[in-house]
Amino acid sequence: MEAAFRAHALWAGCSEEELDSSGEGLEKYVMTKLFPRVFASHPNDVKCDDQLSEKIALIQQFIQPENLDIKATFQNETSWLLAQKELHKINMYKAPRDKLVCILNCCKVISNLLFNASIASNENPPGADEFFPVLIYVTIKANPPKLHSNLSYIQRYRHQSRLVAEPAYFFTNMLSAESFISNIDAKALSMEETEFEKNMEYARALLSGLSTDLDGQSDQSDKDGQSRAEPVEPKHQYLNVSNESDSIARPKSSETKSKSNMVPDAKDTSLMKKIPSLSDLENKGATILLKEEDMVSQVFRDYPYLFAHGGDLTVNDVEELLNNYKQLVFKYVCLSKGLGVAPVPLSNSQTHKLQEEVTFKEAGDPEESNDESKERTNQYDGTNIVSPLQDDILKSKSPQDETVATIGGGNDETSQ
Hints:
The protein is mostly helical. Helix content is 57%, strand content 0%. Helix 6 packs across helix 8 (165-182).
């Protein structure tokens, strides 16, 4: 198809870069139209997605960076949230190239964070041995939906002549990460077999308990709605039977209470036994931030020093202070969201505007040009790790009705 339009009179005299850009536009246009019919169209893809997602959901309940032999020097889970956010964007796009760029952005964030950490600790630049375990850990923590289908879609429909160089390297790493996670076992996590099985059983029980709690809340709301039309006496008899053991264990003073209150009391007791840890609260808040992009723009702009350079501060040990501040803010916001309270921003008298104000733009026009797309694959500034979120191409949603004429720019992926 590309050969046909290259030979057409309308393209006579065009440069190779213009022809490559037109080929990108053609691929994007065709695959956007065919997406509903070709993405996850095979039953095996859906099955693999479900199995992989379920396994990741279990493993992420207990996995730690140490299980993947990630050095303490390179451990920075709060900053890894940025890489997780980039990976989550893969389902926002329909074109194979756009999905591939999401993987590239995730990998580049990880690479830059590792590089900055190596400089701060005066260690050798990180290589594949340091990069790959972090990519696995980020993928497990992100657990992006339909990961297998997305990777298969890129393999099948991304033109092989364009899947080269840096994009091919990072994509191969992501395929390897998927394979590693699918076959993960106790040995892969540096665990004893009994410990691994115990952790998996605990994770199943935890997830099953959460599901049961949600179902119980739904059933209870249904019962409350039905009870309005039922006689009071039968309802009390039902509650008396279902909570007989609880009523025996209660103090005598509680027997004077209405039996209709016994069910909520039992639930309160079970909830009191499940006091979430600080790690659970932090993970809960992080999940909320990952799902609500608008919330990120509102929350983090109140902390201007979070994205400051070392030269912007005038105290001793500025790099260490800045890194500690960044980690503190991320943990504070995640814990606040986990507790369901609004984080308190610093007052205006305590903050100063930086020369480069950090802004988070909302989703842009889906009919983006490849010139804008080119910015997505540019290497990010290692000291300003939020820069991937500011690229214009990252703000565009899945294109719906594009034309080849609206897509310009060069084949920037292979030029890296």
